[in-house]
Amino acid sequence: DTGVSQNPRHKITKRGQNVTFRCDPISEHNRLYWYRQTLGQGPEFLTYFQNEAQLEKSRLLSDRFSAERPKGSFSTLEIQRTEQGDSAMYLCASAIGGSSAGYNEQFFGPGTRLTVL
Amino acid sequence: GDSVTQMEGPVTLSEEAFLTINCTYTATGYPSLFWYVQYPGEGLQLLLKATKADDKGSNKGFEATYRKETTSFHLEKGSVQVSDSAVYFCALSEGRQLTFGSGTQLTVLP
Fold it and tell me: Using one digit for the tens of pLDDT, what is the confidence trace for A58-82?
């Protein structure tokens, strides 16, 4: 069973450093999502790719955040000049995109927990 | 914009008790509705879904009915087990991203 995988699972960094996370979606899924989850809250949408195109970005995604999906397969999320407020669990999800709206079953990875000291 | 409001926790029940976790939503169109579960130390897993009004989603003894008239999607289980202890998230989608509620922590005591 090749589900969504994320690396690393944990990352501790000092404020001001750059970090990069990787997500490998389920192989036939053309949609890929990034979410952020802080303690005691539900996941919040950050950005979304269909194949290699980044189609939507949340207002939560500041200029310090950048995401790529260069070949429409794996994706990376980079945070530059990290701040303590960036500490959270970063979740990746993938889905099969289709023409019908309203049905969007997403499969989640285990997440990368970021701690900024 | 879209939003999901779910019953605040934590909820503590004895084994075999009846469970209800309330969820209401606001959406501009006709969303699909989901319940996700997050077991300790694990990722989010889809528990059940409903894609149109009056649909009932069910899985592992849990069920929820899409009620358009009350914009609700309450999660129920007739007899909870210790292994159901987890955080439960209600979510909606209008075709792209999921919008989640804040989660309800459930603890089931033996």
Answer: 988 889 999 999 988 999 999 999 9
